Amino acid sequence: MKLMIISDIHGSYDDLKKVMRIYEEEKMEKLIILGDILYHGPRNPLPEGYQPQKVMKLLNQYKDRIIAVRGNCDAEVDQMVLEFPMRGDYSELYVDGHRFFLTHGHLYDETHLPMLQKGDVFMYGHFHKPVLEEENGIVLFNPSSISLPKVGQKSFGVYEDGELKIMSFDKKVLYNMKI
User: Fold this and answer.
1) pLDDT at res. 43
2) Which residues pair with 132 in a beta bridge?
3) Per DSSP, which regions of the chain are E strands?
4) How far apart are CA 169 and CA 151, in angstroms?
5) Smallest Cα–Cα separation from 84: which of 102, 105, 65, 100?
6) SS3 of 122, please?
7) Which domain holds residue 46?
8) Total structural domains in the chain?
9) CATH number of the domain encompassing residue 111
């Protein structure tokens, strides 16, 4: 299964259009969104191309292929316009014998992990910085932000055939790991 993992859209339609073009070109099967979908939040500047209504309309076109979790900037009202579930604090996905624990990162993070086992993959956003490392047999994976990175460049994640990658918008592999 080929997955695209994004986080921290923060209402940036321009950046979402770019990654969704890659999603289509690369024939991804699922889109995992690790929170902070429509709103930029009080601590963040307005991202370039801030158009939450257009973000909503674009994502709703992919509603049967999205697995999303709630970020700290996501609100109950967002669920009223988004046509896919996004209010859970976490979700789990089982692919190729791996358990992927999906969360935003404001409740669980690399210093406060949920109950995980060796071989699990902890996917989170929130910090706007790329992370791909293994600690005590658990893979920590943060694709960074597609709109407001705090470290490095705008990026997204890909999982395919037992390999996790963090990639730039020009499809350059920034980090990768076999799991």
Assistant:
1) 84
2) 141
3) 3-6, 30-33, 66-68, 90-95, 98-103, 121-123, 130-135, 138-143, 155-160, 163-168, 173-178
4) 15
5) 65
6) strand
7) 3-178
8) 1
9) 3.60.21.10
